Amino acid sequence: MPVSLPNSKLIYETLKECGIRLVSALPETWLVHLIRMTDEDPEMTLVRLAKEEEAVGISAGAYFAGVKSAMLMQNHGFLASINGIVSFAHLYKIPLLMLISHRGSFGEKDPWQTQGGNVTEPVLRALRIPYFCLDSVETVKKRIRDAQTLAESSLQPVAALLTRDLMWEE
Amino acid sequence: MLRLDCLRSVYSELEDCLVVTIMGAVAAELQSLGHRPNFFYLQHAMGLASSTGLGLALCLPKQDVIVFDGDGSLLMNLGSLSTMARYRPKNLTHVVFDNESLLSVGGFPTATSTGTDLEGIARSAGIPQVVTVRDVEKFRISVSEALHGKDLTIIVAKVDAIGPSGYVTDLSLLENRFQFRRYIQSLKQT
């Protein structure tokens, strides 16, 4: 499978360095290595979800408990989580670190991903969620650390969009 | 059976638990009995009270966590039952007040009024302990047993579709949230 193992590892190591100890996830192709690494790490709690919006509640519970968490989801899962983000994370000022695979952008071959690809960034902007694209190996560590720092200082959700350039090897 | 009587019957047991409630009548009635810093009222985001309880229970395995949910909220996030069953935190008790109604928006009937069986759904999702109760004494005993028990438990409490006259209280959402987190952090330091 041409999902980049080295780049997945780099992202995972950065999450560990940021003190993330709980990851909630719904599988998607680009996330397979990240989910497997979480599952195999005895220091990490992996919560496999039925639907991505659950992750907002689970991360909020972890935050109340003093445990740092991250959410792994596809952009369609982000779209399915919006009410939870707005009427829990925004309403109650809960920090969330969302790692969102940005399917449906340039280079996407699956027709069913393409509409979500069009609207992901406009929806993030409409929700005033600070985000950036993770598109090069050089900036992964700094950007994820910076995102975690902002989430904790501003008490709000932030997003890192995982791009094809970083996640996919052809 | 009135939800307020159910809450009153277990109120003293809640002193050492982390309590998460849904919005509307459940939040207002629990507050009417007396707010405590270990109570968090999720005043929106319907469906996510059980997910919040799951996150708390997984991260604080020695701490009893109890969620007061409702049929309308749970029906919005039935997948939460399968996620809870999958991780089966022994310190989580999930109470579902089933009044067969979306009471706070005008009393529209939910699917439990036409035969949807939350106990059956929970059981089939893999929740190890599930019970339906219809009187206050059985409710009190079931909650007490769940809190002192050793397994994930769901209690479906069939209650009347009657609630308080209003739902807004003088406890601000953010005040509640900051107080709740600070309470948990103080527990971890002692």
List the helices and strands and how they pair.
The complex is a heterodimer of chains A (about 170) and B (about 190).
Chain A: H1 5-17, E1 22-25, H2 32-40, E2 45-48, H3 54-64, E3 69-74, H4 75-79, H5 82-90, E4 96-101, H6 114-126, E5 131-134, H7 140-154, E6 157-162, H8 164-167
Parallel strand pairs in A: 1-2, 1-3, 3-4, 4-6, 5-6
Helix pairs in contact in A: 1-2, 1-7, 3-5
Chain B: H1 3-10, E1 18-21, H2 25-33, E2 39-41, H3 49-59, E3 65-70, H4 71-75, H5 79-87, E4 92-98, E5 101-102, E6 108-109, H6 118-125, E7 129-133, H7 136-148, E8 153-158, H8 173-189
Helix pairs in contact in B: 1-2, 1-7, 3-5
What is the distance, rounded to the nearest whole angstrom, between the alpha carbons of the first and last residues of chain B? Answer: 39 Å
- The percent range for strand residues of chain B is 15-25%
Major sheet characteristics of chain B: 6 strands, parallel
Number of helices of chain B: 8
Gross morphology of chain A is globular
Oligomer: heterodimer
Question: In angstroms, what is the radius of gyration of chain A?
Answer: 15 Å
Individual helix count of chain A: 8
Major sheet: arrangement of strands of chain A: 2-1-3-4-6-5
- Overall structural class of chain A, as computed from helix and strand content, comes to alpha/beta
The largest sheet of chain B has its strands arranged as: 2-1-3-4-8-7
User: Unreliable runs of chain B, pLDDT <50, ≥5 residues?
Assistant: none
Largest protein interface, residues of each chain: A-B, 31 and 36 residues
Q: Provide the residue-averaged pLDDT of chain B.
A: 96
> Which blocks of ≥5 consecutive residues of chain A have pLDDT under 50?
none
Main beta sheet of chain A: 6 strands, parallel
* Mean model confidence by pLDDT of chain A: 97
Share of helix of chain A, binned: 40-55%
- Total strands of chain B: the figure is 8
Name the overall outline of chain B. globular
Percent helix range of chain B: 40-55%
